[in-house]
Here is the input.
Amino acid sequence: MVDAGPVQDGLIGEVAGLLRDADRVTALTGAGISTESGIPDFRGPQGVWTKDPKAERLSTLQAYLEDPELRVRAWRLRMEHPAWDASPNAGHRALAELERKGKLHALVTQNIDGLHQKAGTSPDRLIEIHGTLREVMCMSCDDRAPMEAALARVRAGEPDPPCRTCGGILKSATISFGQPLNQGDMERARAAAEASDVFLAIGTSLTVYPVAYLPGVAARAGARVVVMNAEPTAYDRSADVVVRASIGRVLPEIVARV
Ligand code: NAD
Here is the structure.
C-alpha cells in the first residue's frame, strides 16, 4: 500500500469545492486505485514491472502472438490474477458515490479488473479503455467468450487453448502494447474529457498514450484538472491541483464533502 503522508485539509476542501461547483466530472483511473484492493500496479514502488522489468514483454502483442511459451505463462498468470478474489475499496466506492450525487459524467478506466462495476458505477458511464480481463478474444476472428470458460479449459489440461470457432490464438480482451485501442471507446473518452468541467486523474502515472493525452484535452476545453496520485505524474506541472495521497484515504473524504 502506498502512503504519501498527511494531506492538508485545505487541499481536500479545495478539490471538494471544485466538485461541488461542477456539473460534469470526468474521472480517469489507473492501476493505483486498485492497489488497495490487493492488485499491484505496474510502475509504483511495488509494481509488477518495477520488480521484474522483463514482465513487460508479457503485455506486448507481438511477443504474445509469436511465442507459444510466453502464452502458456500468460495463461498461468491469468489463472492466478489477484482480480478474481479482489473486492472494490473505498476509492472505487467513492467514485460510485460521486455518480449517485449526480456529478459523474463519465469514468474512463485503464484498469481491466472490473472493480468499478463491482463498486456500483453504472455500465453506461464507464469506459474500459484498455479492455477487460473478464473476457477472451480471438486474435484471428474477433470471437469473444467469457474468461471463466477459457480458464476452465486451461485447468482441464489445455495450456494455450485455441479459439473454438476458428482455431486462432486466444488472448484476454485487454489492450496489449502494440494493439490499437477500440476507436469507439477512445472517441467516447475524448468527448467525455471535452465535455467535463472538472477532470480527475486518479492513480495513474499518465505515461500510457493516447489515454495520457486526456487531461490536456480536458484542460484545452476549459476543465480544471486535478491529479491524485502517490507519486509525481507526467501531468503534475500543468494540473490545477495535485493531491499526493493514498486514494482510499483521501477520495472518500473529498466526496463526502461534495
Ligand atoms: P501505473 O502502474 O503506471 O501507475 C500507477 C500509479 O498509481 C503510480 O504512479 C503509483 O504511485 C500510484 N499509486 C499506486 N497505489 C496508489 C494509492 N493507493 N494511492 C495513490 N496512488 C497510488 O498505472 P497506469 O497509469 O494505470 O498504467 C498502467 C497500465 O497497466 C494501464 O494501462 C492499466 O491498464 C494496466 N494495469 C491495470 C491493473 C488493474 O486493472 N488493476 C493493474 C496493473 C496494470
Q: What stands out?
A: Residues 2, 30-32, 34-36, 39, 41-44, 47, 110-113, 130, 203-205, 207-208, 229-231, 246-248 surround nicotinamide-adenine-dinucleotide (CB under 6 Å). The chain has a mean pLDDT of 95.
